[in-house]
Amino acid sequence: MASAYAEQVQRAADAGIGESVAAWFAAGHRPLPWRATGFPAWGVLVSEFMLQQTPVARVIPRLAEWLERWPEPAALAAVPPGEAVRAWDRLGYPRRALNLHAASVAITERHAGVVPEDIEALLALPGVGPYTARAVAAFAYGIRVPVVDVNVRRVLARAVRGVGEPGPARTTEELALMESLLPADAPTARLANAGMMELGQTVCTARTPDCARCPIAAACAWRAAGYPAYTGPAAPRQKPYAGSDREVRGRILRELRASELPVPASRVAELWADAVQRERALAGLLADGLAVAVDDAYALPTA
DNA sequence: TACACGTGGCT
DNA sequence: TAGCCAAGTGT
């Protein structure tokens, strides 16, 4: 079936997009910590957890602290989960800290303390999804697997499909597309994976793409089509944070992190006036395991 | 599939 | 300045 889409994919492969991006990345990129030679797989895993929906600039200092304190999975597994939540500080989405702690326990118990390199084994770890599993396999172990994040999705949408935005995720199709563009040898494939992410983050950005600096501008289907406005299904809108349950949860958890002792319910009550919403947020934190009740007080989880 | 889930910087 | 956006995952 020679669909228009199949033709687009073939054209992209013929243009050598994967090879071009790999060469562009190899010629120069930001010296991010997890790209350093010899950076441990555990460090890559921790960085990928922290980078889930969190900008690079906010991750870098926190990552250094974590790896100094917990240089290997067994070290993190040896402390209570609440310590992970506390050290997570204000990176956001604190259940990532809980998942990372649980992952460290699983790695210690099931994988002899070594971060697995098999995709299926990685996917079995709590908090590790399709993106993180492939990122660890590709970047920590040099395995030739397609890595697709929001940046890669945007580059693929524009360069290959000729549309301005990636739209709703179609994981299987996008993985297959990235796979088809990956250079054959593993080292170059890794450069292509990292390069596509770097390209999407620094050049082919969501709001203001800088096509003058793009290594694949000549092969870009979106550019060739005259940058048509996006007409596909709208991406789901993010709901306002102010006044949301998320804000209440964040405020409560911030108080728990700051206290070595359980925080009295009376103090928690001062954090949010609306009692119904406050209790809902508190119940959510307890259900998620981010907090535990101690008599008439609340604390970070100790086990 | 759609939605919940933190936080802060940028335009 | 209000909304957009950020190396996603779990349900």
From TrEMBL:
InterPro entries: DNA_glycosylase, Endonuclease-III-like_CS2, Endonuclease3_FeS-loop_motif, HhH-GPD_domain, HhH_base_excis_C, HhH_motif, MIG/MutY. One of its GO terms (biological process) is mismatch repair. It comes from the Bacteria. It catalyses: Hydrolyzes free adenine bases from 7,8-dihydro-8-oxoguanine:adenine mismatched double-stranded DNA, leaving an apurinic site. Residues 50-202 form the HhH-GPD domain. It is an enzyme of class 3 (hydrolase). One of its GO terms (molecular function) is purine-specific mismatch base pair DNA N-glycosylase activity. Coiled coil: none annotated. CDD domains: ENDO3c. Its EC number is 3.2.2.31. Its cofactor is [4Fe-4S] cluster. Keywords: 4Fe-4S, DNA damage, DNA repair, Glycosidase, Hydrolase, Iron, Iron-sulfur, Metal-binding. Belongs to the Nth/MutY family. This is Adenine DNA glycosylase. The lineage of its organism: Bacteria, Bacillati, Actinomycetota, Actinomycetes, Micrococcales.
